[in-house]
Amino acid sequence: MTKTITTTALAALIAGATALPSAAEEWRGWNIHPEDYPNGVALESFAEMVAERTEGRIEPQVYHNGVLGAQPDAIEQLRNGGLDFANFNMGPMGQIVSATNVLSLPFLFTDLDNMHEVMDGEIGDRFADALAEEGIIALSWFDSGARSFYNTERAINTPADLDGLKFRVMNNDLYVQMVDQLGGNATPMAYSEVYQSLSTGVIDGAENNWPSFDTSNHFEVAGFYSNTNHLILPECICISADTWESVSDEDKEIVREAAVAAAEEQRELWADSSEESRQKVMDAGVQVNDVEDPAAFQEAMQPIYDQFIENNPDLESFINDIRATQS
Ligand code: GTR
C-alpha cells in the first residue's frame, strides 16, 4: 500500500471539502414516489432552495421510490432521528397522531378546493399542532387528489359490487372499517407489495388517485377503475422535531418558505399529472366508470362517523369546523 497521496486525489479531496462547508448538515429525506412524480419534483425543488438559500449550511438529500422503507416505518424513523424530512400522506399518520384520523373519514371534503381551504387555514394549523406534539413538524400541504377503487374483476357502481372482493388499504383501521361497511374485504399492506399481490390474486383491488394508479403500474393488472372519490387526503412536507430544533431561527424561516414554495409547485404539477395519468391508463385499456349511485357510498359511511365520534369525542369539533367551511 502506498503512503503517498497523488495530486489528483489531493485535488479531489480539496474540491470535496470546498463543495460542502464543514458545518453543513446533510438531511435525509423520504419519498415513496419516483423522482418525476409531482411530489418528487417538488421535493427536489425544496432541497435545492434550502441548500442554496442557507448557502450550504443544510444539504437536503431526497431518497425516492421508497428505498428508505415503507411509510409507517418512515414515520417512526422521522420521529426517532433516522430521517430528517419526508413527504407523508395523512392516511397512515392516523395510527400515530389520532387527530389526523379526522382526515381519513371518507367523503369528509367536498373537493380539492375545500381541502386546500381547510388545510391552509386555522384548522390546518391545528392539525400541524397535533403533529408537532408527536415530533413531526408539518411545514406545508401537498395534494393527492381523490382516491377511488380499482380492481381486476368488474366495474363498481354500487356498494354491492364490492361483495366478495379483497382490497388492499393503507395502514389505518379506519380504511378496514370503510371497506367492511361497503361489503368488501380489506387487508392493510405496504404500497410496494400491491403490484405483486394484484398479479398473483392475493388481492383483487386497491384504491388510489390517478398518478399513483399509473406510476405504480397497478393499471397493468387491475383493469377497472371506478370513480368513488371516497378520500381526499392532504400530504405534508414534514421535518423531524429534533432536526427542526437543531437549526437557527434564520434557517427555520428559509426551510419553511422553501416548503411552502415547493407545495405551490406540487399543486400546480398535480392537476396536469392527474389528467395525463388518467388519459394514459385509459389508452392502455383500463375501463373507467363514474359510479351509478354515489349517495349510497356516502350513506354507508355514517356508522363510521358515529363510532368515530363516540370513540373520539374531543375530535368532533374538527369535523364540525370542517363541515362549517362547506355551508
Ligand atoms: C399515494 C400516496 C402515498 C401512499 C400511497 C399508498 O397516493 O401519495 O404517500 O400513501 O398512496 O397507497 O400507500
Automatic annotation (TrEMBL):
Q: Please cite one Gene Ontology biological process associated with this protein.
A: transmembrane transport
Q: Which Gene3D superfamilies match?
A: Bacterial extracellular solute-binding protein, family 7
* GO MF annotations in UniProt: carbohydrate binding
Q: GO CC terms for this protein? A: outer membrane-bounded periplasmic space
Answer yes or no on keyword ATP-binding: no
**Keywords from the UniProt entry:** Periplasm, Signal
Q: Where in the cell is it found?
A: Periplasm
Q: Which domain of life is it from?
A: Bacteria
Signal among keywords: yes
Q: Which residues form the signal peptide?
A: 1-24
| NCBIfam families according to UniProt | dctP, TRAP_S1
Instruction: Show the PANTHER family listed in the entry.
Output: DICARBOXYLATE-BINDING PERIPLASMIC PROTEIN, PTHR33376
Instruction: Please report the name of this protein according to its UniProt entry.
Output: 2,3-diketo-L-gulonate-binding periplasmic protein YiaO
Give the gene that encodes this protein.
yiaO_1
